[in-house]
Every structure is written in structure tokens, then in C-alpha cells.
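ok, trying the design again with the full structure, not the truncated one.
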């Protein structure tokens, strides 16, 4: 008779264990959206244009960021001024909302 094959640890398929996810803590404090920098405002306003000019898709995140960064660095201070003004306004909005929320 043929010898019966014994089950070994390598024969058994591993059991996949799912890690427990932490529940988000709700501390009851209102959330205030942070202020955007001048660069991020520039990026929001020009992302689509840069994607079209360079033939990029929305999934090319790294390439989009690289091209946007290059465009930002090439700008003069006068060209960056409108974005800096918008960033200052957004910072004031953030401070107002933060004070109103008591944070």
C-alpha cells in the first residue's frame, strides 16, 4: 500500500487575517479647513491648463506637480502677487473660523 501523505504546515493555505481599523475619534470639536498657500491656489487655478498644455491625464499626479512647480518657479514676484493676496485672504478666513469655533 502507498504510504499516506501527512499534512504539513506548507500544505495548508495561509489564513488571511484582516487588521482591525481604528474608529475615528469624534472629539466634538468643529473642523476648520486650513488656509491654502499661494502655490496651492496657483495650482488649483492652473492645473487643468497645465494638463492640457502638456498632454497629461489626471492620473499623472507626479508629472502634473512637477510641471506646476516649474511654472511657479519661473514666475516673477509680480506674477505671484495675486496668488499671495488670495492666500492672505484665505489665512484671514481661517483665523476667523478658528476663533469662531473656539479653537
Amino acid at each position: 500500500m502507498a504510504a499516506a501523505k501527512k499534512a504539513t504546515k506548507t500544505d495548508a493555505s495561509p489564513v488571511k487575517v484582516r487588521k482591525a481599523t481604528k474608529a475615528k475619534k469624534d472629539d466634538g470639536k468643529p473642523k476648520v479647513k486650513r488656509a491654502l498657500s499661494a502655490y496651492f491656489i496657483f495650482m488649483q487655478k492652473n492645473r487643468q491648463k497645465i494638463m492640457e498644455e502638456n498632454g497629461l491625464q489626471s492620473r499623472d499626479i507626479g508629472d502634473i506637480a512637477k510641471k506646476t512647480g516649474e511654472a511657479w518657479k519661473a514666475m516673477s514676484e509680480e506674477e505671484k502677487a495675486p496668488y499671495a493676496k488670495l492666500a492672505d485672504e484665505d489665512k484671514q478666513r481661517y483665523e476667523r473660523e478658528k476663533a469662531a469655533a473656539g479653537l
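Keeping the full-length input from now on. Helices lie at 38-54, 61-74, 77-101.
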